[in-house]
Amino acid sequence: MPSFQNPVPDADEAREAMRGLAYATRHIEHPEDTYPVLGSVTRTIEGLQQVLHQLAAWHHTARPRAASDGGGGDRRIGAADATAAADALTTAAAALDGVWDAVNTAWSQNGWEC
């Protein structure tokens, strides 16, 4: 059950939930189950986008405190790495727009509505 306060165990739980869903969707006995599953997957993508945006913002905000792992904790390198991480996370969140569009289209065109 999510804590809504501790990101590490909540991320682990999300990973396990997706692993379970991947396993469960190998064989679907009731076609009508696909409609709510697609709805939940659509909402999950939205949640993942929010997480990526928030992690990007955190890396941007934390830049002044960042330091490199090697080389004596160089702040200049750490700030550059934090900026690169924030940019990559923002790019990843934007890339999910197309995924969301495709899954949402499949959900709305799904013929097994409950």
Give a verbal description of the structure.
With 114 residues, the chain is mostly helical. It has one domain (7-109). The protein has 3 helices and no strands. The chain has helices spanning 7-24, 34-62, 75-109. Helix 2 (34-62) runs antiparallel to helix 3 (75-109). The protein is elongated and about 60 Å long. The two termini are 26 Å apart. The model has no long low-confidence stretch (mean pLDDT 93).
Number of strands: 0
Which regions contain 5 or more consecutive residues with pLDDT less than 50?
A: none
Structural class comes to mainly alpha
Shape: elongated
From the N-terminal CA to the C-terminal CA, the straight-line distance is 26 Å
What do the pLDDT scores average to? 93
Secondary-structure element series: HHH
Number of domains: 1
Q: Please bin the fraction of helical residues.
A: over 70%
